[in-house]
Amino acid sequence: MTRPWLVTGLTGTLAPHVAHALQAQGHTVTGWDRHTTPADDSPAAHAHLQALNPQGILHLALGSEAWAHALATHAHTHDLPFVFTSTAMVFHHHPDGPHHPTHPTTAQDDYGHHKARTEQTIRTANPRAVIARIGWQIHPTATGNNMTQQLQAQHDQNGVIRASRHWTPATSFMTDTTHALATLAQDGTTGTVHLDSNAHDALTFPELVRGLARHLNRDWVVEETDDYTHDQRLMDDTTRLPGLRERLGLA
After folding, report:
1. How is residue 241 annotated by DSSP?
2. Phi/psi at 174 (nearest 5 deg)?
3. Theoretical Cys-Cys bridge with 9: which of 18, 60, 63, 247, CB 3.0 to 4.6 Å?
4. How close are the terminal C-alpha atoms of the chain, in Å?
5. What is the CA angle 75-79-85, rounded to 5?
């Protein structure tokens, strides 16, 4: 019997696309139902992992540090690939970016703090784990935390999208991020990696919104502001994603 890949977060935004990418490669994918199995470091969670017997784990769900510890420990004990999706939000805008994998995390908000703590929990439990930090995801139709949907909602509500010219966001198309994560789970990579299509292109937010509007044939009105300053780009020595200008047809 083929051992499945365990992908957490299948009710979220990104994980279903990662599961589909793995399935397209011929793999079997299973999720984790937190309603029936505790998402923590309990004996029940460990028994569930033993019963699943996955060939690898991609932890894409937002959950407790205890759950992340259990998953990372199981992967380490059984010599399985383990990928965790973290976020550009582990970095505050002070000090400014671009941010590199070796930079200390500087988050000030609860979400960024939680992700940074979870990163460290995973590293302690599994030194070979992949911590993949990602930016805001772009997809034409996906629901959830998707830039396109949120920009459209802002435009529908206000008739304009306010975009700071001093913000250079970390961002990528979801399909590109999906394939990069599936590859990271299978190519032997370890450690912290950054996945950002804007890392080298350095599009400001207004440039990005206008480029995306043309790419998607949206009639968005963009109002440039000065209300947020941050070079949020996630730099990495290895390029794993196509550039944003290329993806938007701006190259």
Report:
1. S
2. -60, -35
3. 60
4. 47
5. 40
| Tokens standing for residue 9 | 């977060």
Mean pLDDT of the chain, nearest integer: 97
Which residue in 88, 201, 94 sits closest to 147, CA to CA? 88
What is the CB neighbour count within 10 angstroms for residue 109?
A: 10
pTM above 0.85, yes or no: yes
Report the C-alpha gap between 40 and 46 in whole angstroms.
Answer: 9
What is the rounded CA–CA span in Å between residue 54 and residue 51? 9
Residue whose pair of structure tokens reads 């993949």 in the numeric block: 132
Confidence grade of residue 139 (pLDDT, cut at 50, 70, 90): very high
Cα torsion 97, 100, 104, 110 to 10°: value is 70
Q: How many helices (H) and strands (E) does the chain have?
A: 8, 12
Instruction: Tell me the CA distances in angstroms from 118 to 74, 111, 178, 191, 217, one per residue in order.
Output: 16, 11, 21, 14, 39
- CB distance 172 to 193 below 8 Å: no
| Residues 190, 144 contacting (CB under 8 angstroms) | no
- Closest among 27, 46, 30, 26 to 38, alpha carbons compared: 46
Residue type, 150: Q
Describe the crossing of helices 147-158 and 205-216 by its angle, rounded to 10 degrees. 90
Does residue 74 carry a pLDDT above 90?
yes
For 178, the token pair is 């999906």
Helix residue ranges, H only, the chain: 15-24, 43-52, 65-77, 110-125, 147-158, 174-184, 205-216, 244-248
Would you give the distance in Å from CA 21 to the centre of its chain?
A: 15
Q: Which residue has the tokens 């019997």?
A: 1
